[in-house]
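FAQ
Q: What does a multi-component entry look like?
A: The components come first, one per line:
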Amino acid sequence: MTDNPTANPTGHDTESVTVGASLDAAPNRSFQVEALTRVEGEGGLIVEVHDGEVRDVRLRIFEPPRFFEAFLRGRAFTEPPDITARICGICPVAYQMSACQALEAACGVTLDEPLRDLRHLLYCGEWIESHVLHVHLLHAPDFLGYPSGIAMAADHFAEVDRGLQLKLIGNRIVEVVGGRAVHPINVKVGGFFKAPSLAAMRELAADLRQATEWADEIARWVATLPMPEHQLPPGTQLVALRHPTEYPMLGDRLVSTGGLDIAPDQYLQHFAEEHVQHSTALHGKMLSGGDYLVGPLARFVHNADHLAPRAKALAAELGLTTAERNPFRSILVRAIETLHACEVAQRIVDGYTPPARAAVPVQPRAGVGCGWSEAPRGLLWHRYELAADGTIVSAQIVPPTSQNQGAIEHDLADLIGHSLHLDDAALEALCEQAVRNYDPCISCATHFLDMRVVRT
Amino acid sequence: MSTPTLAVWKFASCDGCQLTVLDCEDELLAIAKALDIRMFLEAGPEEVLDHYDISLVEGSVTTAHDAERIVDIRARSGALVTIGACATTGGVQALRNGADVADYCRSVYARPDWIETLATSTPIADHVTVDYELHGCPISKHELLGTITALLAGRRTPVTRHSVCIECKQLGNPCVLVAHGTACLGPVTHGGCHALCPSFDRGCFGCFGPSESANVDGLRVALHAGGTTDPVLVRMLRTFTTSAPAFHDAAERYDTAQRDDTAQRDGSAVADASGAHRP
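Then the predicted structure of the entire assembly, as tokens:
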């Protein structure tokens, strides 16, 4: 150790906890996991078990605050697509899409159909790279008992390599349409700076034929993973966007299993963010009461009818139905959504002719605009208030992980309550695997995970 | 010889630069063979060692705890390489520097008293000795691979010394500033992105930070001639590398000059209304 033996360089809080006198069979016990790995960003989990009952589960998010909503005030209406992308390096396209849609709503602008298709294609690229990264490097190792994707690759080289190759194609889509894989530079309010060339799109078309086959194989491989039996707590509502004809990336309505059906500017009438002490992420909640969940499982349950043909057929073949409530099966939904994204991308690329213009002109005006889209890990809502010259008066951003935080805590409490027979190490592993069901993005949520279980 | 150990550390950031490590799809499994990755929370490995041969550090220092943590990481590291605009300049979150952070807390959080943060976001080099810096928001995958390869081979790391402007010339791009009057920071911005934005018909917005001996005043003259106003230039300088000295100092001067101008104009407008002559 160095001269500071108590320092933990991961940055995770290491305050000590009471360790119960006996372990395993005892009703009162405690254990801790310092850092939850394989999530994007950093956070922790505290579990308290008393007399064999789960008393408290708290997701701790200790990403330092970066104050995006504060420093967006006074910026130009043209800037949020670039600035809010920096909230998350994993899903910058989601931030760009939600920001553009909110600002276009504020300015009363509608995109040309070919430009909307290009946005849809760009989003397919991000879904592919984000989902494939999560499935292979972050989550599959849990199901097969490896500490990391890299360790898993030693025994499952072909599967990991196939995943990385598919991820490469997802990145390539984002590069062709957006300019670069992380923080694309080609997106602007009103469309794009420059439309992709036909030649680049033809190269993508060839890549995507291979990508679709890999995505099909990956979903079949994921379906063979040993799957824990578990159901979401019955009161959890599933919330996702809905579009008349598309599986939503850029949906227009929000629907819930509780019967909600609303437009973007009605969001605050039904949802609120609550500040809790153990987290720099704000907790999302439904004003009607109860937890809600956004993300792949919610999207699938509401929109399975709009999956692309092969994805829809494969979901049915692999036994996924809209009655699915096992959060561990989210990994399979991600694989099905990856296949869907490959098929949609193929359709858009095959039908591409360079658009008449790369962007529609946007004139700012005083007013408020709200917009949303489906980030790989769920609903992302933006709201901007503009002055007449386009200066941003106020900004509000609700990312997916903060919305899911309450539902994750309650799902974990339920899971732990059913799993207290496990020893500490096995329970920790199960909890980490369960948290990753939600693909939490903590950088986004700072407004997430080492784990600590206190059994007293 | 044993395989060199690698650690990847995160401070205040978006994870995009460490994702660039995972984005080396064709090279990742080869890197995993050449390097023993012992600490990389996002990918999984989490082993606290006394010494790592190479530490990649992402993000800026924004909490008192992080200011202590970087000193500890420095003590455990052989070569310490900062990756990206946050680690090298303080990043976009350095827009708080000079602002009222208490007001920032109140505007975002219901209970600002639960938030622990410093009033500033500062680069890693403000706190410890940094051996190599990789610029960009995000970093370039090629520069990252080049640097890791050079460190493993024990040769000098490849460092881009020219500006984005030079890269445009190398690519044969028509100049967006000269041809279209587009506001572009290419002449004063560190290269390494292969003139990405101008290649997409857009002006460079400086995400790799200022180049060596950046002549921002000279660029300002050209921008004015192309119709770009100081408020727009100041905003461009104050974005992803806002605290980098060359950008920060220029933006301060232009902002002050512009405020003085406005004050003077307002003063003379009052004078005009009273029938007095302009000087």
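Q: Is there any commentary attached?
A: Sometimes. For this entry: The mean pLDDT of chain B is 89.
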